[in-house]
SDR family oxidoreductase (Streptomyces tendae), 252 residues
Amino acid sequence: MKVAVVTGASSGIGRSAAAHIAGRGSGVVLTYSANEQGAKEAVREIEQAGGTAVALRLDVADTAGFPAFRDAVADVLRETFRRDSFDQLVNNAGFAGMAMIEETTEQAFDRLTDGLFKGPFFLTQTLLPLLADGGAVVNVTSNSALPHVTAPGYSVYASLKGAVVVLTRYMAKEFSSRGIRVNSVAPGATRTRFADDAFARHPEIVDEMAKSFALGRIGEPDDIGGVVAMLVSEDGRWITGQNIEVSGGHNL
């Protein structure tokens, strides 16, 4: 059995990706930060569908906790999956932050940098010894980093997601000697708990936003999760170094 590590999988895109990956036959180690209940529900859903999953806590913005997390992953691999390595890594965990450039504080800038760029960089580095040769990595970015989607207030968030797009290409180059593929997926606006449940709190904005999508609606987590699962699977075996927009034709 192949095994995947999916960060930020207690809800939204990460949870969908974990379910889709499990549906393709992989065991899943999924992480959560504050939403332990959501993580337990995700594990239960995977188990009810016949899969195997374990939830571990991880703060992607706290690099000091990464060695202990690596040890916890190694323990789970050994005890649950009888493995000393895993095959698929999905760097999905993160959080939003919105402020106009003239209002952005250094504290907010550093918090976003730690969670959206520094965290995924050093988490991947920390887990690399456990990632099997021939494995696959998917980094979840955002189409806000692309030229046709420039929303005022997201300068730091989008810039950091753009940095992950570049990082993805460099990871693909450097890890290729081990046969490890690395790609990123850039969702558009998606109905998740993102930005403090903004869509749930302001449902009136959904219909208006949908007009900017060629396919006539905003995204759902499963629109993205299935693509992530495909990319880490054998179906994605000849794709590496790519940033794939999954947005239903946003601003097409």
User: Anything to note?
Assistant: The longest strand covers residues 131-140. The mean pLDDT is 95. The chain has eight helices and seven strands.
